[in-house]
Amino acid sequence: MGKRLTQIATRTGDNGTTGLGDNTRVSKDSLRVHAMGHVDELNSHIGLLLCEEMPEGVNTVLVEIQHQLFNLGGELSIPGFELLKPEAVLALDEALAHYNAQLPKLEEFILPAGTRAASQAHVCRTVARGAERAVVALGAVETLRDTPRHYLNRLSDLMFVLARVLNRINGGDDVYWKSERIARRSP
């Protein structure tokens, strides 16, 4: 792994390049750097979500996700390296099953709204989808393992489910889309 930063203002990126973990330099607009940036942005949004009131179990899941996203960012920064393990995807599957079991079945589309915590979880969901697209784009031109793509896909699903959980704190509910087409079908 490359050198750890001991100072932040290195000025080495002033020419439009950045250093990867294997000590190579690439353009800051490369697909790899875009993917790393999207993962970093997602991790920051989850950090903001963690500032909100939530059940202890959700907090624990989100903190673990932050660590796994850091692993993913590290893996993206070192071409050919593996840091994010397939077990991390399984952990998301388990969390999805656990939290989905607590929720009523969806019969209508919901809006990305409700409590502030739920709304921030929806922001995390959309940022996770952007990170997934960036990883897919990188994988189209460079060899990547499947685990990063699977992890981000599952994570966006989990953030949707957690938004629904967070909307139910203190007896709340989802915010349902008022579709004119659906309203016309109702008796």
UniProtKB/TrEMBL annotation:
A matching Pfam family: Cob_adeno_trans
Gene3D superfamilies: Cobalamin adenosyltransferase-like
EC number: 2.5.1.-
GO biological process terms held by the UniProt record: cobalamin biosynthetic process
The reaction(s) this protein catalyses: 2 cob(II)alamin + AH2 + 2 ATP = 2 adenosylcob(III)alamin + 2 triphosphate + A + 2 H(+)
Group of enzyme by EC: transferase
Disordered as annotated region, ranges: 1-23
Keywords carried by this UniProt record: ATP-binding, Cobalamin biosynthesis, Nucleotide-binding, Transferase
Subunit structure and binding partners: Homotrimer.
Protein name per its UniProtKB record: Cobalamin adenosyltransferase
Lineage, uppermost ranks: Bacteria, Pseudomonadati, Pseudomonadota, Betaproteobacteria, Burkholderiales
